[in-house]
Amino acid sequence: MSHISPDPEPERTPGLEPGGGVPPGETPPAESSLPEAGPRETHNPPKGWAKAPLTLIIVLVVLIAAFFLAYALVLML
């Protein structure tokens, strides 16, 4: 795979002045696409929650709800 330089060549880019500036009314050259812009990502974790943490959270919520329900029943008696 060859590397593409992101810098435009001033001699071959239309609309550039000799110092590399852009004359009034002219659109500056756009950035080129960089196929090698970032590191290759090889680890893509699965989406969603794992079963163990989700089960633990549900059990914890049920225990807390049961505690408050029992506490309310004790206060009513």
Q: How large is the share of residues in beta strands?
A: under 5%
Question: Radius of gyration from the CA trace?
Answer: 31 Å
Helix % is 25-40%
Structural class: mainly alpha
The number of strands is 0
The largest pleated sheet is described as:
none
**Anisotropy-based shape:** elongated
State the helix count.
1
Low-confidence stretches: none
Pfam families: DUF6480 (PF20088)
Keywords: Membrane, Transmembrane, Transmembrane helix
Protein name: DUF6480 family protein
Organism: Streptomyces violaceus (Streptomyces venezuelae)
Summarize, please.
This protein has 77 residues and is an all-alpha fold.
Annotation keywords:
single chain, mainly alpha, 1 helix
Description of the molecule:
Keywords: Membrane, Transmembrane, Transmembrane helix. It holds the Pfam family DUF6480. The chain crosses the membrane at residues 54-76. The chain is an all-alpha fold and 77 residues long. It contains one helix and no strands. The termini are far apart.
